[in-house]
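Translate sequence into structure tokens.
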Amino acid sequence: MVNIMIHWLVAGLLSVMHPFFLSVVQIDHNPKEASLEISVRVFSDDLEKTLQQYSKSKIDIIKPADRKLVEQQLFQYMQQHIRLTANGKPVSFQFVGYEQQLESTWSYFEIPNIKELNTLSIDCSLLHDFEKNQVNIVHVKSKGKEKSYKLDYPNRTTSFSF
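Result follows.
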């Protein structure tokens, strides 16, 4: 229930607060599936402009001419700007997909074979290459506990223990 309220609050803040530069990274440990489920929310226009810096093709996230190309560039960008260490070991995530919701883009990722999550370190530099006022909020849930941390530019690292 609290998690749902947090998501609604963040959704409201995201739509009201722009032109602030904000992303939300939600990482949930799913013990039944032995995986980490990751969702990343970023304003679509900011994400588009950032991805455009790395592409020779026009990037249109909302109505892509080539969705596969957008997915590939989105995944590559996220891999470069979100790095995770679970239980002391670096881990790589798999791309699940992305969708639009109001003015934001939700991107979804998964890390399989994480039976238990005791510690998680994150290096998150989302949109630091686009905006120096970027704020990245990280929520991590494991063992029934949710912890959060706010990363203001240029800070990009934090750790959680459960």
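Note: The chain has one domain: 2-161.
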